[in-house]
Every structure is written in structure tokens, then in C-alpha cells.
Amino acid sequence: MRCVKANRVCGGYEQSVNQVFQRYGKVEQNVGSLESAGRKCSLPVQASSSDDRGELVDGQPEEVSDEKADDYAMRAFFFEFCITAPVTGIPRGYLSSLEPMLQGQGWQSNLAKACKIVGYASHSIKLRRPWLARKAELLYQDLLPHLARAIESPSSTNTFEALMIAMLLGLYEMMLANGYRIEQCSTHARGVAAILRMQNTPLNLLAGRSPLLLSIVAQAKSSCHSQSKLKMPVLPSQETKSFITPSGNERSPHLDDLLVKLEPIWISADAFLSNSETTSEECVQLRSRAVVLDQALALWQETQVKDFRPWIVGHISHSHAGSRVEVGHWPGGADTYFELYVAYMWNVSRAARVFLVDLVVKLCQIINDKYDVTREVSDARRLTEDIVSSIPFHLAEDLHGFLRNVKMGDQRASIEAGRMSGGLLLMYPVYIVSKLQIVPQPMREYLTDCLEWIATHMGIGQASLLAKVRTKYAAGFSFDPLSMVAFSG
Prior knowledge:
The chain is mainly alpha-helical. It has helices at 2-5, 66-81, 98-105, 110-126, 130-152, 159-175, 182-196, 204-207, 211-228, 255-273, 280-302, 340-367, 374-395, 399-407, 420-434, 441-458, 461-467; strands at 83-84, 93-94, 311-316, 332-336.
């Protein structure tokens, strides 16, 4: 149990990263799935060493064949990015359907190539080994024509596989993101939109209004059942839901549905706050919608069952006055969660609420009435602190070990980076709240430092780009709710 709370693999289960440690009620265990092939890459971070001619020593080890290197890249990808729910369907995990599909397709398929690309690229940055990036680029160029054909005629291809390939190549671009690769990320986003035939907004997917998505889900479930006998009992009302947790209250809404309602508020806020001619009546109506949605998100949080709530496992004391707070050392509690994707769902709901409160405060300044925002502002501060308390859980390989070092008085104890999926799922909620004016400036600076840390130590280049974003609209920050939605696969 301590290993689960620490977000680390128990030593007795080193070769089985999907061991079931917890149950929830009478939920059926995912016993039909095969043991994961995921393994942590054992290569150390490359030191800056040079040969006799002063050239950087870098290259594929002679004893490792291309076939072996591909095998290692696949296993490392599964370990770093695929989160399989320890109990069936609750929650779905992250990219959890990939490995069952590939158990049937084999590791030479186009989908497997996409996984290898991400495995190579992410480790090239994290381990400072450029030869891994070169391997990724070769596979990437080989796979692009296949994706282009799938986008041109989606009706004649395996839609779910094409969607996953497009998303994985988008993830590859996120790993290597810099100021010159932004257009490639947009290209993959448009590819996903073309494959899914989205109409007005990608958030239609969360609302389940895409007929094609229903067929994709059925296709994925059929593939998983036939290839690995993976049991996936999901209620019809949850067929297209990305965020599923067991609720202790029938009144509790789906987080997906709440995010869909967030979109029109975001669009209105973007228009109202940048338009000096917006009337007070329009602002009052928008404020009412924001308050109602904030209350609905609060209800979602309040009705989560005990096992899916965060629980505190440590406390970090105040660092030296005036010094820059190291990543993971923000004073306060340190929380742990059932799994990373559950923590992600909580942070999505928190970031959405902080955005809504920030919007309410701005609208009150425009309306200039006597509306009391004391409670909302207090909630926003607490929610931001809760996001900060989740940071060590997302980033640390050994949460308890890190907290133990801090407790022993090591105020500069560094976090040993954990799975890249932790940084990936933390990145956007942190980015959102780091740009909101309701968050105190010192905390915004700390959150920005966390983004830079994710880029450097977890190999996710886009985190560094997000840390450098400074653009704001005249009346506030423009927030896209879709930026927090990560496809669960």
C-alpha cells in the first residue's frame, strides 16, 4: 500500500507494472489483460563527454542492434506513457488501449512505429542522447505518408488506429516542441479533426455528439476483446466519456459534460473582456453562468468517493525566506492519489474552477456592484494550493523517498523524475493557473518553474514553450478548456 501511495512500483512486482494493489467495492478486476511489456529505460543520462578529437561521443551502442533498440523504445514507451486502470473501466487510464491492440497487431505495424517514435524522441531529451532523436525522425518520415492517406480518406481506413497514430505523432511534436515546430503540432491537430469529422468544436467529442466517435469506441472495444480478451464493461451513458470515476452520489455530473458547458463561457469571456462596449447586463448574465458552473464543478469534487480523493502523505516546511522555491518544495501538504489519471481529473476540475473564479472577479470589476466574491476568491486560492500539492506526486519517481529527505532537513533535495506521463498530465492545468491574475505572483512564478522542470527532466519540450507564454488580452488571459483534455485512449 505504501508503494501505491508513493506512486512507485513495489520491489516485489518489478516485472509487473500493472499489479492490482487496490479494489473499489465490487468492481471487477482487469484480470483478462496480459502482463505489460513496459519497462523503464536503463540508460543513464549522457554526460558531456568528448573523444580525442573533441567531438561529442554520441551514438547507438555497437552491441545494440536496430531490432533491439526498437524493442527497448516500445517497452520504454509503454512504461512512461500508458496508464492502465488497476480495476476495470474506473477510470479508463491514459492510452490504456494501445498495448492490448499491439499485442494482436505485432510490433512492426504503423501504430507500433508511432509508439517507438514517441519512445525514442522523449528519451533523446531526457537522457541527452541525440542519436535517439535521429532514430525517431527516420521512423517519423516513414510514417507520415500513411497518416496523410488516412486523413484523405478516413472512411476507407481503420479509424481508431489512424486517430491514435495522429495523436501519437502530435505527442512526438510536443516532446520536441520549440519555436520552429509549432506548425507541425497544428497539422496533427487538424489531422485528428479530419479523421473524427468534427463540426464546430472538438468539445463535441466530450459531449458524445460525434457519431463517428461511437463507431471508433466500438472498434477499439472489439479490437481489445479479440486480441487480449480485455474486459471493458462500460455503461452506455459512459461510452464516449473520457473522465470516469465512481461517484457516491447519483446527482454528480460527468466531468466531460461540465467541460462542454465551460466552452461557451470561455468564448463569451474572450469576447466580453476584450470589448469595451460590453454592457453591464451581459456581464451579469455571464457571471451568473460562471457561478452556476463553478458550483457544479464543486459538486463533482464533493461527490467523489473516498478512494478517488487525494490524501495527504507529507508536509513540506517553509524554505529560506527570499530564496527561489525549488520544484517540489512549495510549503504545505503533499498529496497522493489512486493513480495519475485520477490526479489529472482532479486538476482539470480545479483549473477550470480557478478560471471561472478569475472570470467572476474580472466581471465584478466591470459591473462595479456589491457582489461579494470573498468565498470564491478563497476557493480559488485553496484549489491552486491543491494543484501545487499534487506536483510531487506527478513528478517524483519515489514520492515517499523525496518527502523523507525533505523531512530530514534537506531543503534542496531534488526530485528524481518519474514517468513522463506524470509531467504530461500535469502540464496544462499548471499552465492555465500560472497565467491567471487571481493566483498570487510568487505562486505563478513557481508554477512556471515547474513547467521548465518538466521540459528539462521529463523531455517534454512543449512545457518550456508554455512557460514562456506571456501574451494576455487587454482584460485578462484567454483560456481554451480543450487544452486540458487529454484523450484517455
